[in-house]
Amino acid sequence: MRDGEQAAGGALTLEEKIEVGRQLQKLGVTVIEAGFPSTSPGDFEAVQFMSREFRDVEIAALSGFKEEQLSRTWEALQDAETPLLHTVISTSDIHIDQQLHMTRAELVELTDHTVRFARNLAPHVEFSTMDATRSDRDFVVEVLATAIRAGATIVNIPDTVGYSMPDEFGELVSYCMDNVPGIDDVVVSVHCHDDLGHAAANSLTGVMRGVTQVECTVNGVGERAGNASLEEIVMALRTRQDFYEADTTINAPELLRTSRMVSAHMGMVVPPNKAVVGGNAFAHSSGLHQDGMLKERTTYEIMRPEDVGQGGSKIVLGKTSGRHAVRNHLKEMGAEIEDDRVFEDIFQSFKRIADRKKEITDRDIEAILEDRAHRAFHQTYELDLLQVTCGTDGIPTATVRLKTDDGKMLEDAALGDGPVHAVYQAINRIVNVPNVLTEFTVSSVTEGIDALGGVTIKIESRGRAFTGHGSDTDIIVASAQAYMNALNRLLDVLGGGGPAEAETVSV
Ligand SMILES: [Zn+2]
Questions:
Q1: Quick one: DSSP state of residue 305?
Q2: pLDDT the model gives residue 283
Q3: CATH code for the domain defined by 381-505
Protein backbone atom coordinates (compact mmCIF):
# COMPACT_ATOMS: atom_id res chain seq x y z
CA MET A 1 0.00 0.00 0.00
CA ARG A 2 2.86 2.38 0.79
CA ASP A 3 4.68 1.85 -2.50
CA GLY A 4 1.44 1.63 -4.46
CA GLU A 5 0.32 4.97 -3.17
CA GLN A 6 3.61 6.49 -4.30
CA ALA A 7 2.34 6.11 -7.88
CA ALA A 8 1.91 9.54 -9.43
CA GLY A 9 -1.64 10.76 -8.76
CA GLY A 10 -2.51 7.59 -6.85
CA ALA A 11 -3.09 9.01 -3.36
CA LEU A 12 -5.96 7.41 -1.45
CA THR A 13 -8.23 8.80 1.24
CA LEU A 14 -8.19 7.22 4.72
CA GLU A 15 -11.49 5.42 4.01
CA GLU A 16 -10.13 4.02 0.75
CA LYS A 17 -6.94 2.81 2.43
CA ILE A 18 -8.98 1.03 5.08
CA GLU A 19 -11.23 -0.56 2.46
CA VAL A 20 -8.22 -1.72 0.42
CA GLY A 21 -6.59 -2.93 3.66
CA ARG A 22 -9.62 -5.07 4.50
CA GLN A 23 -9.62 -6.49 0.98
CA LEU A 24 -5.88 -7.30 1.28
CA GLN A 25 -6.72 -9.26 4.42
CA LYS A 26 -9.41 -11.19 2.52
CA LEU A 27 -6.82 -11.80 -0.17
CA GLY A 28 -4.63 -13.39 2.48
CA VAL A 29 -1.51 -11.21 2.42
CA THR A 30 0.78 -11.80 5.40
CA VAL A 31 2.10 -8.25 5.78
CA ILE A 32 0.50 -4.93 4.84
CA GLU A 33 3.02 -2.10 4.58
CA ALA A 34 0.43 0.51 5.40
CA GLY A 35 2.32 3.76 4.98
CA PHE A 36 5.21 6.13 5.68
CA PRO A 37 3.92 7.78 8.89
CA SER A 38 6.76 10.25 9.46
CA THR A 39 6.11 11.92 6.10
CA SER A 40 2.42 12.77 6.39
CA PRO A 41 -0.34 12.96 9.01
CA GLY A 42 -2.60 11.01 6.61
CA ASP A 43 -0.18 8.09 6.55
CA PHE A 44 0.22 8.26 10.32
CA GLU A 45 -3.55 8.05 10.76
CA ALA A 46 -3.90 5.14 8.31
CA VAL A 47 -1.08 3.12 9.89
CA GLN A 48 -2.44 3.76 13.38
CA PHE A 49 -5.97 2.78 12.38
CA MET A 50 -4.89 -0.50 10.77
CA SER A 51 -2.52 -1.25 13.67
CA ARG A 52 -5.38 -0.91 16.13
CA GLU A 53 -8.16 -2.56 14.12
CA PHE A 54 -6.63 -5.25 11.92
CA ARG A 55 -5.86 -8.67 13.39
CA ASP A 56 -4.16 -11.78 11.96
CA VAL A 57 -1.97 -9.72 9.64
CA GLU A 58 1.36 -8.02 10.26
CA ILE A 59 1.29 -4.26 9.87
CA ALA A 60 4.49 -2.68 8.59
CA ALA A 61 5.43 0.97 8.22
CA LEU A 62 8.39 2.48 6.44
CA SER A 63 10.67 4.96 8.19
CA GLY A 64 13.73 7.03 7.39
CA PHE A 65 16.80 6.34 9.52
CA LYS A 66 16.63 9.43 11.78
CA GLU A 67 15.75 8.78 15.42
CA GLU A 68 12.75 11.14 15.38
CA GLN A 69 11.41 9.44 12.22
CA LEU A 70 11.78 5.99 13.79
CA SER A 71 10.10 7.11 17.02
CA ARG A 72 7.23 8.74 15.15
CA THR A 73 6.75 5.62 12.97
CA TRP A 74 6.73 3.40 16.05
CA GLU A 75 4.10 5.62 17.65
CA ALA A 76 1.75 4.87 14.72
CA LEU A 77 2.61 1.17 14.72
CA GLN A 78 2.91 0.15 18.34
CA ASP A 79 -0.68 -1.08 18.85
CA ALA A 80 -0.47 -3.65 16.07
CA GLU A 81 -0.72 -7.35 16.94
CA THR A 82 2.53 -7.91 15.02
CA PRO A 83 4.13 -4.55 14.22
CA LEU A 84 7.02 -4.40 11.76
CA LEU A 85 9.26 -1.34 11.70
CA HIS A 86 10.91 -1.03 8.29
CA THR A 87 13.89 1.25 7.80
CA VAL A 88 16.11 1.86 4.84
CA ILE A 89 19.60 3.18 4.03
CA SER A 90 21.20 3.38 0.56
CA THR A 91 24.29 1.34 -0.23
CA SER A 92 25.17 2.48 -3.76
CA ASP A 93 28.08 4.89 -4.17
CA ILE A 94 25.90 7.22 -6.22
CA HIS A 95 23.41 7.53 -3.32
CA ILE A 96 26.11 7.62 -0.62
CA ASP A 97 28.09 10.38 -2.38
CA GLN A 98 25.32 12.45 -3.94
CA GLN A 99 22.49 12.08 -1.46
CA LEU A 100 23.96 11.16 1.91
CA HIS A 101 27.44 12.79 1.60
CA MET A 102 29.06 10.08 3.73
CA THR A 103 31.91 7.62 3.56
CA ARG A 104 31.21 3.88 3.46
CA ALA A 105 32.59 3.52 6.98
CA GLU A 106 30.20 6.19 8.25
CA LEU A 107 27.32 4.40 6.54
CA VAL A 108 28.13 1.10 8.26
CA GLU A 109 28.22 2.97 11.56
CA LEU A 110 24.86 4.62 10.75
CA THR A 111 23.31 1.22 9.90
CA ASP A 112 24.41 -0.22 13.22
CA HIS A 113 23.04 2.74 15.17
CA THR A 114 19.74 2.88 13.22
CA VAL A 115 18.91 -0.80 13.57
CA ARG A 116 19.84 -0.85 17.28
CA PHE A 117 17.65 2.20 17.88
CA ALA A 118 14.76 0.59 15.93
CA ARG A 119 15.11 -2.72 17.79
CA ASN A 120 14.87 -0.91 21.09
CA LEU A 121 11.44 0.22 19.96
CA ALA A 122 10.10 -2.73 17.97
CA PRO A 123 10.34 -6.52 18.22
CA HIS A 124 10.45 -6.92 14.43
CA VAL A 125 12.71 -4.70 12.35
CA GLU A 126 13.20 -4.89 8.60
CA PHE A 127 16.30 -3.32 7.11
CA SER A 128 16.59 -2.48 3.39
CA THR A 129 19.75 -1.68 1.46
CA MET A 130 18.30 0.87 -0.96
CA ASP A 131 19.64 0.69 -4.54
CA ALA A 132 21.30 -2.66 -3.73
CA THR A 133 21.46 -3.64 -7.41
CA ARG A 134 23.70 -0.67 -8.27
CA SER A 135 25.88 -1.18 -5.17
CA ASP A 136 29.20 -2.94 -4.68
CA ARG A 137 28.20 -6.52 -3.72
CA ASP A 138 30.74 -6.81 -0.97
CA PHE A 139 29.52 -3.59 0.54
CA VAL A 140 25.89 -4.82 0.46
CA VAL A 141 27.11 -7.94 2.28
CA GLU A 142 28.91 -5.82 4.89
CA VAL A 143 25.88 -3.58 5.52
CA LEU A 144 23.44 -6.51 5.72
CA ALA A 145 25.77 -8.30 8.14
CA THR A 146 25.90 -5.14 10.27
CA ALA A 147 22.10 -4.86 10.26
CA ILE A 148 21.69 -8.50 11.32
CA ARG A 149 24.27 -8.12 14.10
CA ALA A 150 22.39 -5.02 15.29
CA GLY A 151 19.14 -7.02 15.52
CA ALA A 152 17.31 -6.79 12.17
CA THR A 153 14.82 -9.66 11.86
CA ILE A 154 14.18 -9.21 8.12
CA VAL A 155 16.71 -8.05 5.54
CA ASN A 156 15.49 -6.77 2.21
CA ILE A 157 17.44 -6.63 -1.05
CA PRO A 158 15.70 -4.06 -3.25
CA ASP A 159 16.08 -3.24 -6.92
CA THR A 160 14.98 0.30 -6.13
CA VAL A 161 15.42 1.71 -9.63
CA GLY A 162 14.40 -1.40 -11.63
CA TYR A 163 17.89 -1.76 -13.10
CA SER A 164 18.72 -5.44 -12.65
CA MET A 165 18.23 -8.36 -15.03
CA PRO A 166 16.79 -11.60 -13.60
CA ASP A 167 20.00 -13.70 -13.75
CA GLU A 168 22.03 -10.83 -12.34
CA PHE A 169 19.54 -10.21 -9.55
CA GLY A 170 19.51 -13.92 -8.69
CA GLU A 171 23.30 -13.88 -8.44
CA LEU A 172 23.19 -10.91 -6.06
CA VAL A 173 20.65 -12.71 -3.84
CA SER A 174 22.74 -15.89 -3.83
CA TYR A 175 25.91 -13.91 -3.12
CA CYS A 176 24.24 -12.39 -0.04
CA MET A 177 22.84 -15.78 1.03
CA ASP A 178 26.31 -17.32 0.78
CA ASN A 179 28.34 -14.51 2.35
CA VAL A 180 26.31 -12.58 4.94
CA PRO A 181 26.99 -14.02 8.40
CA GLY A 182 23.76 -14.81 10.24
CA ILE A 183 21.50 -14.52 7.16
CA ASP A 184 20.11 -18.03 7.80
CA ASP A 185 18.56 -16.77 11.04
CA VAL A 186 16.55 -13.93 9.49
CA VAL A 187 13.87 -13.60 6.82
CA VAL A 188 15.26 -12.53 3.45
CA SER A 189 13.05 -10.31 1.32
CA VAL A 190 13.14 -8.74 -2.15
CA HIS A 191 11.52 -5.55 -3.43
CA CYS A 192 11.78 -4.99 -7.19
CA HIS A 193 10.70 -2.13 -9.44
CA ASP A 194 9.49 -2.44 -13.00
CA ASP A 195 11.41 0.23 -14.92
CA LEU A 196 12.62 -2.32 -17.49
CA GLY A 197 9.63 -4.65 -17.10
CA HIS A 198 11.46 -7.24 -14.97
CA ALA A 199 9.99 -6.67 -11.50
CA ALA A 200 7.99 -9.90 -11.30
CA ALA A 201 10.73 -11.95 -13.01
CA ASN A 202 13.38 -10.55 -10.64
CA SER A 203 11.20 -11.25 -7.60
CA LEU A 204 10.55 -14.83 -8.73
CA THR A 205 14.25 -15.34 -9.37
CA GLY A 206 14.76 -14.24 -5.76
CA VAL A 207 12.34 -17.00 -4.71
CA MET A 208 14.37 -19.53 -6.73
CA ARG A 209 17.44 -18.41 -4.75
CA GLY A 210 15.78 -18.97 -1.38
CA VAL A 211 14.01 -15.71 -0.57
CA THR A 212 10.82 -16.21 1.49
CA GLN A 213 9.33 -12.71 1.44
CA VAL A 214 8.39 -10.81 -1.71
CA GLU A 215 7.24 -7.20 -1.55
CA CYS A 216 4.79 -6.39 -4.31
CA THR A 217 1.67 -4.40 -5.15
CA VAL A 218 -1.75 -5.12 -6.62
CA ASN A 219 -1.79 -4.34 -10.38
CA GLY A 220 1.94 -3.55 -10.07
CA VAL A 221 1.18 0.06 -9.07
CA GLY A 222 3.94 2.08 -7.44
CA GLU A 223 6.69 4.63 -7.84
CA ARG A 224 7.46 5.42 -11.55
CA ALA A 225 6.83 2.27 -13.66
CA GLY A 226 5.59 0.58 -10.50
CA ASN A 227 6.45 -2.37 -8.32
CA ALA A 228 6.29 -6.13 -8.88
CA SER A 229 2.74 -7.23 -9.61
CA LEU A 230 1.29 -9.36 -6.80
CA GLU A 231 -1.12 -11.28 -9.03
CA GLU A 232 1.61 -12.23 -11.50
CA ILE A 233 3.91 -13.54 -8.76
CA VAL A 234 1.13 -15.45 -7.03
CA MET A 235 -0.13 -17.12 -10.20
CA ALA A 236 3.37 -17.92 -11.47
CA LEU A 237 4.11 -19.71 -8.19
CA ARG A 238 0.77 -21.49 -8.24
CA THR A 239 0.68 -22.44 -11.92
CA ARG A 240 4.33 -23.51 -11.96
CA GLN A 241 4.71 -25.20 -8.59
CA ASP A 242 6.60 -27.92 -10.45
CA PHE A 243 9.23 -25.28 -11.26
CA TYR A 244 9.33 -23.09 -8.14
CA GLU A 245 8.37 -25.63 -5.48
CA ALA A 246 7.03 -22.71 -3.47
CA ASP A 247 3.61 -21.20 -2.79
CA THR A 248 1.96 -18.32 -0.94
CA THR A 249 -0.96 -17.87 1.45
CA ILE A 250 -2.87 -15.84 -1.14
CA ASN A 251 -6.54 -16.64 -1.70
CA ALA A 252 -6.32 -16.27 -5.49
CA PRO A 253 -10.07 -16.10 -6.28
CA GLU A 254 -10.00 -12.68 -4.55
CA LEU A 255 -7.38 -11.37 -7.02
CA LEU A 256 -9.74 -9.86 -9.55
CA ARG A 257 -11.92 -8.13 -6.95
CA THR A 258 -8.81 -6.67 -5.32
CA SER A 259 -7.44 -5.54 -8.66
CA ARG A 260 -10.69 -3.77 -9.53
CA MET A 261 -10.89 -2.04 -6.17
CA VAL A 262 -7.33 -0.73 -6.41
CA SER A 263 -7.84 0.34 -10.01
CA ALA A 264 -11.05 2.21 -9.20
CA HIS A 265 -9.76 3.93 -6.05
CA MET A 266 -6.51 5.01 -7.66
CA GLY A 267 -8.07 5.98 -10.97
CA MET A 268 -5.53 3.74 -12.73
CA VAL A 269 -7.17 1.58 -15.38
CA VAL A 270 -5.88 -1.99 -15.81
CA PRO A 271 -4.90 -2.59 -19.47
CA PRO A 272 -7.00 -5.35 -21.12
CA ASN A 273 -3.88 -7.37 -21.92
CA LYS A 274 -2.56 -7.28 -18.32
CA ALA A 275 -1.53 -10.77 -17.13
CA VAL A 276 -3.99 -12.52 -14.79
CA VAL A 277 -6.37 -9.58 -14.10
CA GLY A 278 -6.70 -7.95 -17.54
CA GLY A 279 -10.09 -8.02 -19.24
CA ASN A 280 -8.69 -10.13 -22.11
CA ALA A 281 -6.49 -12.38 -19.96
CA PHE A 282 -8.86 -15.30 -20.61
CA ALA A 283 -10.39 -14.23 -23.94
CA HIS A 284 -9.67 -16.55 -26.83
CA SER A 285 -10.27 -14.90 -30.18
CA SER A 286 -8.46 -16.95 -32.80
CA GLY A 287 -10.70 -19.57 -34.40
CA LEU A 288 -8.16 -22.32 -33.90
CA HIS A 289 -7.83 -21.47 -30.19
CA GLN A 290 -11.61 -21.26 -29.71
CA ASP A 291 -12.03 -24.63 -31.37
CA GLY A 292 -9.35 -26.12 -29.13
CA MET A 293 -10.94 -24.61 -26.03
CA LEU A 294 -14.32 -26.12 -26.87
CA LYS A 295 -12.77 -29.58 -27.22
CA GLU A 296 -10.54 -29.35 -24.15
CA ARG A 297 -9.90 -26.11 -22.26
CA THR A 298 -6.33 -26.95 -21.25
CA THR A 299 -5.30 -26.87 -24.92
CA TYR A 300 -4.85 -23.10 -24.63
CA GLU A 301 -5.55 -22.29 -20.99
CA ILE A 302 -2.87 -22.66 -18.31
CA MET A 303 -5.00 -21.17 -15.52
CA ARG A 304 -8.73 -21.40 -14.96
CA PRO A 305 -10.42 -17.97 -14.95
CA GLU A 306 -12.39 -18.85 -11.82
CA ASP A 307 -9.12 -19.52 -9.95
CA VAL A 308 -8.31 -15.79 -10.08
CA GLY A 309 -11.87 -14.54 -9.66
CA GLN A 310 -12.57 -14.12 -13.39
CA GLY A 311 -15.56 -16.36 -12.90
CA GLY A 312 -17.46 -15.00 -15.86
CA SER A 313 -20.62 -12.97 -15.53
CA LYS A 314 -23.54 -15.19 -14.80
CA ILE A 315 -27.00 -13.74 -15.03
CA VAL A 316 -28.31 -13.42 -11.53
CA LEU A 317 -31.20 -11.00 -11.37
CA GLY A 318 -33.68 -9.20 -13.58
CA LYS A 319 -36.16 -6.38 -13.74
CA THR A 320 -38.70 -8.23 -11.66
CA SER A 321 -36.34 -9.09 -8.83
CA GLY A 322 -37.53 -7.54 -5.60
CA ARG A 323 -35.80 -6.29 -2.45
CA HIS A 324 -35.65 -9.74 -0.92
CA ALA A 325 -33.92 -11.31 -3.95
CA VAL A 326 -31.44 -8.44 -4.21
CA ARG A 327 -30.63 -8.57 -0.51
CA ASN A 328 -30.11 -12.34 -0.66
CA HIS A 329 -27.91 -12.03 -3.66
CA LEU A 330 -25.76 -9.37 -2.03
CA LYS A 331 -25.33 -11.74 0.90
CA GLU A 332 -24.21 -14.53 -1.44
CA MET A 333 -21.65 -12.14 -2.91
CA GLY A 334 -20.29 -11.50 0.59
CA ALA A 335 -21.77 -8.02 0.88
CA GLU A 336 -24.17 -8.06 3.79
CA ILE A 337 -25.84 -4.66 4.05
CA GLU A 338 -27.13 -3.94 7.55
CA ASP A 339 -28.14 -0.30 7.17
CA ASP A 340 -31.61 -0.10 5.56
CA ARG A 341 -30.96 3.30 4.02
CA VAL A 342 -27.78 2.03 2.39
CA PHE A 343 -29.63 -1.01 1.09
CA GLU A 344 -32.44 1.14 -0.31
CA ASP A 345 -29.89 3.28 -2.13
CA ILE A 346 -28.31 0.16 -3.67
CA PHE A 347 -31.74 -1.21 -4.55
CA GLN A 348 -32.72 2.01 -6.34
CA SER A 349 -29.49 1.87 -8.38
CA PHE A 350 -30.32 -1.72 -9.21
CA LYS A 351 -33.85 -0.77 -10.37
CA ARG A 352 -32.49 2.05 -12.54
CA ILE A 353 -30.16 -0.36 -14.33
CA ALA A 354 -32.69 -3.21 -14.49
CA ASP A 355 -35.13 -0.88 -16.24
CA ARG A 356 -32.76 -0.52 -19.15
CA LYS A 357 -30.92 -3.82 -19.10
CA LYS A 358 -32.77 -7.13 -19.20
CA GLU A 359 -30.21 -9.30 -17.49
CA ILE A 360 -28.28 -8.23 -14.43
CA THR A 361 -25.02 -10.06 -13.79
CA ASP A 362 -22.71 -10.27 -10.79
CA ARG A 363 -20.49 -7.76 -12.51
CA ASP A 364 -23.35 -5.22 -12.70
CA ILE A 365 -24.00 -5.62 -8.98
CA GLU A 366 -20.29 -5.20 -8.27
CA ALA A 367 -20.31 -1.99 -10.34
CA ILE A 368 -23.18 -0.65 -8.21
CA LEU A 369 -21.26 -1.49 -5.02
CA GLU A 370 -18.09 0.11 -6.44
CA ASP A 371 -20.00 3.30 -7.28
CA ARG A 372 -21.33 3.37 -3.75
CA ALA A 373 -17.86 2.82 -2.28
CA HIS A 374 -16.78 5.85 -4.26
CA ARG A 375 -19.38 7.96 -2.58
CA ALA A 376 -18.11 7.03 0.90
CA PHE A 377 -17.11 10.64 1.55
CA HIS A 378 -19.33 13.68 2.01
CA GLN A 379 -21.69 14.32 -0.92
CA THR A 380 -21.98 18.07 -1.33
CA TYR A 381 -23.83 17.66 -4.63
CA GLU A 382 -25.79 14.85 -6.21
CA LEU A 383 -26.81 14.57 -9.82
CA ASP A 384 -30.60 14.82 -9.94
CA LEU A 385 -31.31 15.34 -13.64
CA LEU A 386 -29.34 15.35 -16.85
CA GLN A 387 -30.50 16.13 -20.36
CA VAL A 388 -28.27 16.35 -23.40
CA THR A 389 -28.84 17.27 -27.03
CA CYS A 390 -26.17 16.26 -29.51
CA GLY A 391 -25.69 14.74 -32.94
CA THR A 392 -24.04 15.36 -36.29
CA ASP A 393 -25.54 18.85 -36.59
CA GLY A 394 -26.06 21.59 -34.04
CA ILE A 395 -24.23 22.55 -30.88
CA PRO A 396 -24.10 19.99 -28.05
CA THR A 397 -26.17 21.36 -25.17
CA ALA A 398 -26.61 20.05 -21.65
CA THR A 399 -29.03 20.86 -18.85
CA VAL A 400 -28.20 19.61 -15.35
CA ARG A 401 -29.95 19.77 -12.02
CA LEU A 402 -27.95 19.09 -8.86
CA LYS A 403 -29.26 18.48 -5.38
CA THR A 404 -27.20 19.98 -2.56
CA ASP A 405 -26.54 18.39 0.82
CA ASP A 406 -29.04 20.82 2.38
CA GLY A 407 -31.78 19.83 -0.03
CA LYS A 408 -31.62 22.72 -2.50
CA MET A 409 -32.03 22.08 -6.22
CA LEU A 410 -29.72 23.98 -8.57
CA GLU A 411 -30.15 24.06 -12.33
CA ASP A 412 -28.06 25.34 -15.19
CA ALA A 413 -27.33 24.69 -18.86
CA ALA A 414 -24.30 25.04 -21.09
CA LEU A 415 -22.96 24.49 -24.59
CA GLY A 416 -19.88 22.41 -25.35
CA ASP A 417 -17.63 20.96 -28.05
CA GLY A 418 -19.22 17.57 -27.41
CA PRO A 419 -21.90 16.17 -25.11
CA VAL A 420 -19.53 15.36 -22.22
CA HIS A 421 -17.92 18.79 -22.49
CA ALA A 422 -21.36 20.42 -22.41
CA VAL A 423 -22.32 18.42 -19.30
CA TYR A 424 -19.08 19.34 -17.52
CA GLN A 425 -19.52 23.02 -18.44
CA ALA A 426 -23.05 23.00 -17.04
CA ILE A 427 -21.87 21.33 -13.81
CA ASN A 428 -19.01 23.84 -13.56
CA ARG A 429 -21.48 26.73 -13.73
CA ILE A 430 -23.18 25.41 -10.60
CA VAL A 431 -20.32 23.93 -8.58
CA ASN A 432 -17.80 26.64 -9.51
CA VAL A 433 -14.51 25.01 -8.44
CA PRO A 434 -11.55 25.69 -10.74
CA ASN A 435 -10.02 22.38 -11.87
CA VAL A 436 -8.34 20.77 -14.85
CA LEU A 437 -9.47 17.44 -16.29
CA THR A 438 -6.28 15.42 -16.81
CA GLU A 439 -7.57 11.94 -17.58
CA PHE A 440 -10.75 10.48 -19.03
CA THR A 441 -11.17 6.75 -19.64
CA VAL A 442 -14.24 4.87 -20.81
CA SER A 443 -14.50 1.11 -20.43
CA SER A 444 -17.19 -1.48 -20.79
CA VAL A 445 -18.10 -3.16 -17.49
CA THR A 446 -20.01 -6.02 -19.07
CA GLU A 447 -20.60 -7.35 -22.58
CA GLY A 448 -23.37 -6.67 -25.06
CA ILE A 449 -25.10 -3.66 -26.56
CA ASP A 450 -26.84 -2.83 -23.28
CA ALA A 451 -23.61 -3.13 -21.30
CA LEU A 452 -22.80 -0.91 -18.36
CA GLY A 453 -20.15 1.62 -19.30
CA GLY A 454 -17.64 2.73 -16.71
CA VAL A 455 -15.98 6.15 -16.78
CA THR A 456 -12.90 6.93 -14.72
CA ILE A 457 -11.54 10.46 -14.65
CA LYS A 458 -8.90 12.48 -12.88
CA ILE A 459 -9.10 16.19 -12.14
CA GLU A 460 -6.47 18.44 -10.61
CA SER A 461 -6.97 21.44 -8.41
CA ARG A 462 -4.50 23.36 -6.24
CA GLY A 463 -1.74 20.85 -6.99
CA ARG A 464 -3.74 17.77 -5.96
CA ALA A 465 -5.33 15.05 -8.06
CA PHE A 466 -8.78 13.58 -7.46
CA THR A 467 -10.23 10.56 -9.19
CA GLY A 468 -13.87 10.00 -10.01
CA HIS A 469 -15.78 6.99 -11.23
CA GLY A 470 -19.26 6.39 -12.53
CA SER A 471 -21.07 3.60 -14.33
CA ASP A 472 -24.34 3.55 -16.20
CA THR A 473 -25.87 2.06 -19.34
CA ASP A 474 -25.67 5.63 -20.71
CA ILE A 475 -22.07 6.68 -21.12
CA ILE A 476 -22.90 10.40 -20.85
CA VAL A 477 -24.63 9.79 -17.51
CA ALA A 478 -21.63 7.73 -16.35
CA SER A 479 -19.36 10.63 -17.38
CA ALA A 480 -21.48 13.09 -15.38
CA GLN A 481 -21.43 10.79 -12.34
CA ALA A 482 -17.66 10.38 -12.57
CA TYR A 483 -17.28 14.17 -12.60
CA MET A 484 -19.66 14.65 -9.65
CA ASN A 485 -17.74 11.94 -7.81
CA ALA A 486 -14.38 13.67 -8.37
CA LEU A 487 -15.81 17.09 -7.48
CA ASN A 488 -17.37 15.83 -4.24
CA ARG A 489 -14.07 14.26 -3.30
CA LEU A 490 -12.26 17.52 -4.08
CA LEU A 491 -14.76 19.53 -2.01
CA ASP A 492 -14.48 17.05 0.87
CA VAL A 493 -10.70 17.47 0.95
CA LEU A 494 -10.14 21.08 -0.11
CA GLY A 495 -13.47 22.71 0.74
CA GLY A 496 -14.68 25.78 -1.15
CA GLY A 497 -16.86 26.03 -4.23
CA GLY A 498 -20.51 26.95 -4.29
CA PRO A 499 -23.09 28.25 -6.70
CA ALA A 500 -22.03 31.27 -8.73
CA GLU A 501 -25.06 32.60 -10.61
CA ALA A 502 -26.93 29.30 -10.77
CA GLU A 503 -30.64 29.51 -10.46
CA THR A 504 -32.02 28.08 -7.23
CA VAL A 505 -35.14 25.99 -7.42
CA SER A 506 -36.93 25.31 -4.17
CA VAL A 507 -38.11 21.83 -3.25
ZN1 LIG B 1 9.64 0.59 -3.87
A1: G
A2: 78
A3: 3.30.160.270
